[in-house]
Design brief:
mainly alpha; 3 domains; 8 strands
C-alpha cells in the first residue's frame, strides 16, 4: 500500500533525512530562484488533452510523492538514494534551526559544507538538461545529439543488462567525469570535486525517478475514464509504480555484465577474426554483419540508414526531411557538385495530378510531413483537412507540388518513400535522429577502453539501434571484434569500400597492425 508516511518531506528545497525524524533539509540557493515548478510532461498535454481530471490526478500524485516544485521536494521512502536524499541539498532545518550538511574533506580531514545536488545540477547541468531533466534546457536546441531526457528512465551507455536496465552509479560517474566523446556532453573531472559529482548523480537520479513515474501514470491514464480519475490514479497504484521505478535503480548494481574471460590478445589473427565477424564473412558461428549499419568501409554509412548528406541536412542544418531527400536526389540524378544553390534542370512536362493524388493517399507519412512541417494547406484547420483532401484532392496535390515540385517525378516519389521510411526507423526512443559511429575516426561516445567497447557490443546501446550480442557471440568473439575496432582507425585499408565475397575474405588483410 502507498501511504504518506512512506515519504519524507523537503521544505524550502528540503528533504527529510531518514536518520532524523521530521527533519527537513533545504538549499539557500532556492531563495534566488523562487518557486520553480516542474513543467507538465508534453505527453500529458497531447495525449490527455481531453482528460483534465486525470491530468490533475497525476499532477497531485507527483506533488504528493516528489513535491510540487523545486522548493518543496519530497523523496520516497527507501528510494535507494544515498541516505534517502540527504545530499540533494545543502542544509538541514529542524524547526527554526538551520544547520549545514557537513562532509569530511578527504584531503584535509576537516568537516566542510556541501553544495548539494540541486545546486551543482543548476550550475553545471540545467542549461542543457532542463529544470526537470527533460533535455530541454535553454541551450538544448543548439546541440546535437540532444541532451539526455532523464524522464524516460533510459540511459544509453551502461554496463548493465537486461535491455534498458538502469545505469550503475559507476556508469553515471564515468559519463560525468569524462563526458561523451563526439557530443556536447563535456567531462567535469576538472570542474567538480569527487563529492560534487556524487551529489549530482543523486540529483539526476531523483529527476529520472520522478519523470519515469510520470510517464507510467500517463500511460495508465490514456486508457482510463476521465469521469472517475481516482479509480485509476489512486494511492495504491501510484505506490506500486514508485516502488517499481526506485527498485529498478537499486537492481542495476547487481546487473553488471562482466566478461567471462580476459581480453583476447590483440594479435593479427584476432583482428582478422574480428574483421570477418564485422563483415559477416566468418565460416563458423552466427552472422552479425555490422556493416548493415556501420557500412562495409566502417564509415557509418550502412544501408540501414539514410545517406550522411541527408542526415547532416536534417540533424545539423534543420532542413525538412523531404527537402533534404530531394536535394540529395537531385545532386545524384544530375551529378550536381553541390545540392544547395545549384541550378537544377527544369521540366516542362505537365504533372500527372491523378498519380500524385494516389501517391499522397497511399503514403500518409509523406502527406503528414507536408502538412505538419511544410505548411501544406496551412489556412485549413486540422479537423477539416481530411475532408478537404477527400473533396478537392487535386487542389491539395497542386499545392503539394509548389512545396515539393519533384513529386511530379515518379522515380523521386519511390525514392522519397524509401528514404523517409529509413529515416523514421533510425530515430531513437527520444525521437532524435541516430547515426552509426564512423569507426575510422576512432571516436567512441561511450568510452574507448576495451571494456567500454566490450559493453557496447555485448549489451548494446539502450534506446538506440545498437543491439546486444551477449548470448549470440561468445566473449572470445566479442573481444576479437573489440581488437578489430581498436585497430581499424590506423588501418582503414582493412575494410573495403564495397562488400567482399566470402572467398576473398580468406586472403590476408592489408597492413593489419597489432594493438596491445
Amino acid at each position: 500500500m502507498f501511504s504518506r508516511d512512506r515519504f519524507v518531506s523537503l521544505i524550502g528545497l528540503s528533504f527529510c533525512v531518514g536518520l532524523i525524524s521530521m527533519a527537513s533539509i533545504g538549499c539557500d540557493d532556492a531563495r534566488f530562484a523562487g518557486p520553480i515548478r516542474y513543467r507538465e510532461h508534453e505527453r500529458a498535454t497531447k495525449d490527455l488533452a481531453d482528460k483534465p481530471k486525470l491530468r490533475e490526478a497525476i499532477s497531485q500524485s507527483l506533488a504528493r510523492v516528489y513535491g510540487d516544485d523545486l522548493s518543496h521536494i519530497k523523496v520516497p521512502d527507501d528510494s535507494g538514494l544515498r541516505e534517502n536524499g540527504r545530499y540533494l541539498t545543502n542544509f538541514v532545518r529542524i524547526g527554526e534551526k538551520r544547520e549545514p550538511i557537513l562532509e569530511k574533506d578527504p584531503v584535509t580531514g576537516k568537516s566542510v559544507a556541501i553544495a548539494g545536488g540541486y545546486a551543482v545540477y543548476r550550475r553545471s547541468c540545467l542549461h542543457c538538461h532542463g529544470v526537470a531533466g527533460g533535455g530541454d534546457g535553454p541551450t538544448s536546441d543548439f546541440l546535437y545529439p540532444k541532451p539526455r531526457d532523464y524522464r524516460l528512465g533510459v540511459f544509453k551507455f551502461t554496463s548493465t543488462n537486461p535491455v534498458d536496465a538502469k545505469p550503475t552509479r559507476a556508469d553515471l560517474r564515468k559519463t560525468i567525469l569524462y563526458g561523451l566523446h563526439g557530443t556536447s556532453m563535456p567531462g567535469f573531472e576538472a570542474n567538480l570535486s569527487a563529492s560534487e559529482i556524487e551529489q549530482v548523480i543523486d540529483y539526476m537520479t531523483f529527476l529520472s525517478m520522478r519523470g519515469e513515474t510520470e510517464r507510467y501514470l500517463i500511460d495508465e491514464a490514456m486508457t482510463a475514464d476521465d469521469k472517475d480519475p481516482q479509480t485509476t490514479i489512486n494511492a495504491e497504484f501510484v505506490g506500486d509504480v514508485v516502488a517499481k521505478v526506485t527498485g529498478s535503480w537499486k537492481d542495476a548494481e547487481t546487473q553488471v555484465v562482466n566478461p567471462s574471460v580476459k581480453r583476447v590478445e590483440s594479435t593479427r589473427e584476432s583482428i582478422q577474426r574480428g574483421r570477418d565477424l564485422y563483415l559477416g564473412l566468418n565460416t563458423a558461428g552466427p552472422k552479425i554483419e555490422c556493416l548493415t549499419c556501420h557500412g562495409p568501409s566502417g564509415k557509418g554509412n550502412g544501408a540501414a540508414f539514410v545517406e550522411p548528406e541527408i542526415f547532416r541536412d536534417v540533424a545539423l542544418k534543420f532542413h525538412p526531411i523531404d527537402k533534404a531527400i530531394d536535394d540529395f536526389y537531385q545532386a545524384v540524378k544530375f551529378q550536381l557538385p553541390e545540392a544547395h544553390g545549384a541550378s537544377k534542370p527544369k521540366t516542362e512536362s505537365k504533372p500527372d495530378l491523378d498519380a500524385i493524388v494516389k501517391f499522397l493517399t497511399d503514403n500518409p507519412p509523406v502527406l503528414n510531413q507536408l502538412r505538419k512541417n511544410r505548411e501544406l494547406m496551412k489556412n485549413v484547420l486540422d479537423p477539416a483537412f481530411a475532408e478537404k483532401f477527400t473533396a478537392e484532392p487535386k487542389n491539395v496535390a497542386e499545392e503539394a507540388l509548389t512545396i515539393l515540385p519533384d513529386l511530379a517525378d515518379p522515380d523521386f516519389r519511390v525514392f522519397l518513400v524509401a528514404k523517409m521510411d529509413l529515416w523514421t526507423k533510425s530515430l531513437d526512443v527520444w525521437g532524435n535522429p541516430l547515426r552509426p559511429a564512423n569507426l575510422i575516426e576512432g571516436t567512441y561516445k561511450g568510452g574507448r577502453r576495451p571494456l567500454d567497447l566490450y559493453w557496447r557490443i555485448a549489451k548494446g546501446i539502450n534506446g538506440a539501434k545498437m543491439p546486444a550480442h551477449a548470448g549470440l557471440l561468445t566473449d572470445d568473439q566479442i573481444w576479437d571484434i573489440v581488437n578489430f575496432v581498436l585497430a581499424l582507425p590506423e588501418n582503414a585499408a582493412m575494410l573495403p569500400e564495397s562488400i567482399p565475397t566470402p572467398a576473398a575474405s580468406s586472403a590476408p588483410s592489408r597492413s593489419v597492425a597489432v594493438s596491445r
